[in-house]
Amino acid sequence: MSFITGVGLTAYGRHEGCSSLDLMSKAAALAIADAGLKRAEIDGVLCGYSTVSPHIMLATVFAEHFGIKPVYAHAVQVGGATGLAMAMLAHQLVEAGVAKHVLAVGGENRLTGQSRDASIQALAQVGHPDYEVPLGPTIPAYYGLVASRYMHEFGVTQEDLAEFAVLMRKHALTHRGAQFREAISVADVMASKPVALPLKLLDCCPVSDGGAAFVVSRETTSEISVRVRGCAQAHTHQHVTAAPPLSELGAEIAVARAKQAARVAISDVRYAAFYDSFTITLAMLLEDLGLAGRGEAASRARSGYFSRHGEMPLNTHGGLLSYGHCGVGGAMAHLVETQLQMTGRAADRQVRDASLALLHGDGGVLSSHVTMFLERVR
To answer: What is the predicted pLDDT for the residue at 123?
Structure first.
C-alpha cells in the first residue's frame, strides 16, 4: 500500500533565469511541505530527464542541489509516461520497504533554456536513428501520421480533434498557473497555422518552463493523502515504423493490467487525467482506455461529457495543451491536479466527485504506457 501524500507545482510558461534544477527544487519544496514532512525525511528520490541540462546522473545531481542524502536514487526515462512510471516505481519501493517517503520530481526550463530549433532537434531523436531521423521528421510529424491513419479508419475530422484543444483551454481559464488562459474556439484551432497536417498549431502542446513534484509514502502523513489503488505498464514498440495497428496499442494492455491490479472497473471511475501532447493523443487514449467508443471521443467532448461539470471530468487544470508542457514535469501536473481534486483542494476548478481517478501517461509515439488508479482515503 502507498499514498500520494504531497504535491507541488509551479506555474508553467516562461521562467527567466531559472535552471531545470531550480524549477525542480521549487516544486519539490512545495510537495514536501504539502506532505507535512521535512527534507531530511525524504529517503528516496526519483527524477526523469532534462533535454536542456542532460545530466547523466540527474537524480543524484538533484539530490545534491536540493540538499538531501537519500538511501535510494534513480532516474527514469520513458518519455511522456515518465511521471506516472516514477509514481509506479515509488509505489513499489515503499510497498517493498526500500524507502518510506519517495520524492518524484521533474522540471525543465525548456522554453527559455534552449532555442526552438534545439528543442525540436532534441525531441526528434525519439525517431529510429536509421530509418526515421535521417528523413527529418519532428514529434508533431510522427503524431500527424498517426492522426491521418486514425481519421481514415474512424471517420474523424480535423474539427473533431479541435474539440479537445477547446476543452483543455476552457479548463485552463481559471488556473492562474496555466501558460494559456485565453478562450479559443474550433474555428480558432482550424485557423491556426499547419504544423504537421492534419495537426494545426493549436492541436499541439506548447514548449514551457516549469516543475512538478509529488511524495509517495508508505503511510498517510495527513488528511490530504490519496491511495494508489493499482497500476501497470505496457510497451509495444518504440519507433512509429514498428508500431502495431491502432487497435493493438499499449494503452489497452496497460489499463487491463491496472484494472486487474486495482480490482476496479472503468464504470467506477469518477475523474480522468490523460496525457494530451496533441489532440490526437487525447482522442485515441480516451477510446483505448474505455471512456468512449471508437471514433466517438470527440462527440463526447463536444457534448460536455469531459467538462468540469460533466459526467467524467478530464484534465481540469488544462492539460499539456493549455497548462503547458515542460518535459517530464508536464504530465506530472496531471497527477498534481488529480490529487488536489481528490482532496477537495482544487478551488473553483473543484469537481463534484473525484473519489476514484484514472490516470494514464503515454511516452514516445504511443509507445510506452502507464495506467494508474488513485482512491480517496477519506
So the answer is: 85
What is the structure's pLDDT at 124?
86
Instruction: Look up cell 474523424; give the residue.
Output: 156
Q: Is 81 helix (H, G, I), strand (E, B) or coil?
A: helix
Say how many Å lie between the first and final Cα of the chain, rounded: 15
Mean of pLDDT values over 80-102 = 98
C-alpha cell at 216: 509517495
For residue 167, what are the contacts with CB-CB under 8 A and spacing of at least 6? 301, 306, 307, 314
Please write the tens of the pLDDT for every residue from 242-259. 999 988 899 999 999 999
Give the CATH number of domain 3-113+208-217: 3.40.47.10
Output the DSSP codes for 171-232: HHTT-TT-S--S---HHHHHHSPEEETTEEGGGBPPP-EEEEEEEEESS--STT-EEEEEEE
C-alpha cell read off for 307: 467538462
378 pLDDT more than 80: no
Domain regions of the chain by residue span: 3-113+208-217
Average pLDDT across the chain, whole number: 96
Residue 85 main-chain phi, psi, to 5 deg: -65, -40
Angle in degrees, CA 173, 179, 183, rounded to 5:
35
C-alpha closest to that of 280 among 120, 377, 171, 153: 153
Q: Which residue has the cell 494559456?
A: 180
pLDDT in tens, 116-142: 788 888 888 889 999 999 999 999 999
Tell me the pLDDT tens digit for each residue of 24-75. Answer: 999 999 999 999 999 999 999 999 999 998 788 999 999 999 999 999 999 9
How far is 233 from 176, CA to CA, in rounded Å?
33
**How far is CA 121 from each of CA 118, 133, 134, 303, rounded to the nearest angstrom?**
5, 10, 12, 38
